[in-house]
Amino acid sequence: MLRLHDYLPSQNAWKVRLLLSHLGLEYERVPVSIFEGESHTEAYLEKNPAGAVPVLEVEPGKCIAESNAILCYLAEGTAYLPKDRLERAQVMQWLFFEQSYVEPQIGSLRYWRLTGKLAKRSEDMVAGKRAYSLRALAALERHLTRRRFLVGERYTIADMAVYAYAAHADEAGLDLAPYPAFRAWIGRVEAEPGFLRERFPYSIDPHASRELG
Predict the structure, then answer these.
(1) 35 and which of 30, 134, 180, 210 could share a cystine (Cβ 3.0–4.6 Å)?
(2) What does each C-alpha distance from 45 to 28, 38, 41, 81, 157 come to in angstroms?
(3) What are the sequence ranges of the domains in the chain?
(4) CA angle 41, 44, 49 (to 5 degrees)
(5) Rounded distance, CA 56 to CA 48, Å?
């Protein structure tokens, strides 16, 4: 059985749980207490040298790290990863976009805000993250004004990846009112069969106020 090394409040881990839900795949969830250093033990670093969650263990000792790489692995041969060469490249385009412009920007602001760490960051750093976050939202708005999903009419892992953090940009202190096409896309993603509505706040973890190692 698949084993998912997971931290429940992580939206990177959530996106993997979302695809597993869409696919109806059974898996064993292995909790990792990241703020207590469990992702930096020697055993865990053998699974992911970067010491981050999630990690998917497909067989004992055979692991895939990085959430979007896991999405690609699980979606192979399904409707969520197109076979067409151009469409497949477009999916990859948005997976790279998510890891460059969404997760490090919107995701960081959200994490700092929800764990009480925002005040500990410099004003310039926060302002920079906010500016890049707004640029990401503007790019998504432009693209989705003429499309149902990120890759034309098809719901793919690109939508799952971008949704994970971008759809909750309000939790990062960003106003979504100026982005009607983006908000309509959020509704379409959430209407997909098997959509995973269950999310977990950082408040379930008494150690979340600590800094990550």
Answers:
(1) 210
(2) 19, 10, 6, 29, 26
(3) 2-78, 85-190
(4) 100
(5) 10
pLDDT tens readout for residues 56-96: 999 999 999 999 999 999 999 999 999 999 999 999 999 99
Task: Calculate Rg over the CA atoms of the chain.
Answer: 17
Which residue bears the tokens 């992911």? 48
User: Whole-model pTM?
Assistant: 0.97
Q: Which residues pair with 211 in a beta bridge?
A: none
Dump pLDDT digits (tens) for 155-175: 999 999 999 999 999 999 999
Q: What distances in angstroms separate CA 113 from CA 34, 36, 93, 201, one per listed residue?
A: 18, 20, 28, 12
Is the CATH number of domain 2-78 3.30.70.100? no
